[in-house]
Amino acid sequence: MCIILTLTFCSIISQIYLKRLNLEIKTHTKNMQKLSLSMFRKGFLGIFHGSISAKIAQNKFIINKKNAVFDSLEEEDFILLHNKKDYRWNEASIDSDIHLSIYNNIFEAKFIAFTMPQNIVSYSLNHDFIEPKDYFGYERFDRIEIYNPKNYDDWYERAPYEIPKFMQKNKTNFIVIKGYGIISYSRDLIDLAKDVALLDFSCTVLKNEKIYN
115 is in which domain, residue-wise? Predict the structure, then answer.
């Protein structure tokens, strides 16, 4: 009798957990759909380039699939991944290993995005640092080091290790990578977008300053 009651109780707990998990997945998916469209319109995400994810549990996260089009993401364009790799990883974004490594190494990371704002990427090609001169950029950021990956050929093999290491060493929630883009994390999805938008504006101001001087 005790065994039956225990099994019934465990079954109920399991069902409650799955319902909560599915609800959280749907909520995060819906929010990422909206944000992805806004970021696409700003030029922060490409048609097939970029990635966005949300941590669902200690060993699970959802991320866009590899062929996702960011201006029209649907629920089926996201996939749930476990830390232990399986067949689902074949459908997931090429950046999935980077996202996993950040989630595993940085407890504060709840959302992650890889974006490619043109102003930031172009500015990174000829500079080693970003020093915002506009009011909002100056208030939000210190001097930002631009990370040089040096060799693009093996970058995706090194990135999952080098990116979280840089973030932890510099106590920052984002990394600007020369000629590549920005990887950033946050506990809040809106804050994630704000940092990218502010930095993009700062780089635009710096670029225009050279034109008008």
Answer: 2-212
Evaluate if residue 170 carries a pLDDT over 90.
Answer: yes
Whether residue 25 has pLDDT greater than 90: no
Average pLDDT over residues 134-141: 93
For residues 114 and 51, the answer to whether their CB atoms sit within 8 Å is: yes
Nearest residue to 113 (alpha-carbon basis) of 162, 62, 156, 153:
62
Unique residue bearing structure tokens 């998990």: 21
In the chain, the number of structural domains is 1
* CATH number assigned to the domain comprising residue 152: 3.40.225.10
